[in-house]
User: Which sequence fits this backbone?
């Protein structure tokens, strides 16, 4: 799929069919996430793979009862890992770079899933501590984004977007 078509056609999917994801598809999504750029190439993030019913149910609850998280056959949780960027970048690494690393990796995974014909939605509304407990992550790991992945059970219409003139500001 052409990148510009991919960017244009990607939708937020909040309903998933029961069809499982092929292992090769999941591997390609995870490999794309692994290829994401990161500050100092430190990859200061962790990805937690939630495919059990109980973990997905806990994540749905932690995300304010967003029950579509239970429907998706796979849910990835992207977490910042400050201890990986702090030694090189100090406070900025701990507070910003590791979060940026996790979000870029999530974006690469989301676009890879879309290119493979799968549906996703970026979930950022959740209680971070409840998510950390649900995925059994150690203290210090900071959940940043939840990405359910599956075969779309809906076909949302395109959403309105701001014009480029409203987004881009030229400086002189």
Assistant:
């Amino acid at each position: 799929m052409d990148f510009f078509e991919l960017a244009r056609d990607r939708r937020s999917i909040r309903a998933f069919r029961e069809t499982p994801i092929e292992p090769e598809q999941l591997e390609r999504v995870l490999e794309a996430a692994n290829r994401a750029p990161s500050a100092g190439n430190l990859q200061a993030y962790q990805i937690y793979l939630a495919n059990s019913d109980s973990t997905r149910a806990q994540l749905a609850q932690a995300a304010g009862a967003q029950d579509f998280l239970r429907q998706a056959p796979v849910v990835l949780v992207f977490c910042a890992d400050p201890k990986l960027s702090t030694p090189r970048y100090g406070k900025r690494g701990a507070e910003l770079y590791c979060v940026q690393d996790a979000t870029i990796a999530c974006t690469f995974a989301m676009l890879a899933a879309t290119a493979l014909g799968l549906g996703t939605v970026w979930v950022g509304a959740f209680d971070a501590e409840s998510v950390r407990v649900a995925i059994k992550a150690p203290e210090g790991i900071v959940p940043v984004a939840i990405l359910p992945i599956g075969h779309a059970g809906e076909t949302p219409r395109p959403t309105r977007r701001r014009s480029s003139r409203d987004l881009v500001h030229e400086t002189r």
User: Anything to note?
Assistant: The mean pLDDT is 96.
